[in-house]
Known about the structure:
Strands 19, 20, 21, 22 and 23 form a five-stranded antiparallel β-sheet that branches. A four-stranded antiparallel β-sheet has the order 9-10-13-14, with no helix packed on it. The protein has a four-stranded antiparallel β-sheet with strand order 15-16-17-18, with no helix packed on it. The chain is globular and about 60 Å long. By secondary structure, the protein is mainly β. The longest helix has 10 residues, at 53-62. The chain contains two helices and 23 strands.
Amino acid sequence: xxxxxxxxxxxxxDFETANTVLADGEFGLETDTGKMxxxxxxxxxxxxxxxxxxxxxxxxxxxxxxxxxxxxxGYYPGWSASDTINKYSFANSNPATDVGNLPVxxxxxxxxxxxxxxxxxxxxxxxxxxxxxxWSFSSDGNAxxxxxSPFEYGGYWHSVSSxxxxxxxxxxxxxxxxxTPPISPSxxxxxxxxxxxxxxxxxxxxxxxxxxxxxxxxxxxxTHGYSVGGSTGTGPVVSTNIIEKFAFTATSGTATxxxxxxxxxxxxxxxxSSSE
Length: 276
């Protein structure tokens, strides 16, 4: 059965009269004007800005694919790291195909997508850590290493994407940089790093997690990234059940604790995002 997605809709006058607060990431479509707004969970409808045509195209193209999915790197039986990039179709049930390779066999990195490229963010490449790699959606082939700052070295973080930026959240790092003290390979970091797709430049986002964590999961609305579960500690690790969010536009402060999982997680939980 085909997937059907419905957007909240009403006439412009009815939206303005109700002045409803749209939920975080909820779309509101004016049926008589064709204009659209996206809620943040706190701002009333009349105070929200309309989404431009170009921005709407980026949101729907960059935040979800329509043709293919990819899997890059990871472990395979025997506990060896893989350098394979696999591609599979959303339209049929055929097996995945090997469409290219990473420069170095890598596991435990993050992943996000621009509208044109897949990006494997950091990760472990035994015996050390790895940089960002990217490959083209249109031509397939091998990935290339990006020339970036040292912010992206590390692994065991989780990643989320806004339409124009990828975010690496927490994780383990063992390379010192100008904004944080040296971190041991077993240390957890609270930093959120942003990677701008257009410039391919990484930097400290400024906003941080409430505590250093690794091995968690991430999810995204149209306006916020979410960090869920994972472990803390530099020696004995401690599982967490925290759910916290940060605004994609935030440049300072800490993420907001918005709830808890039913059971704390230490490692291996995965994140998903829904339009419902």
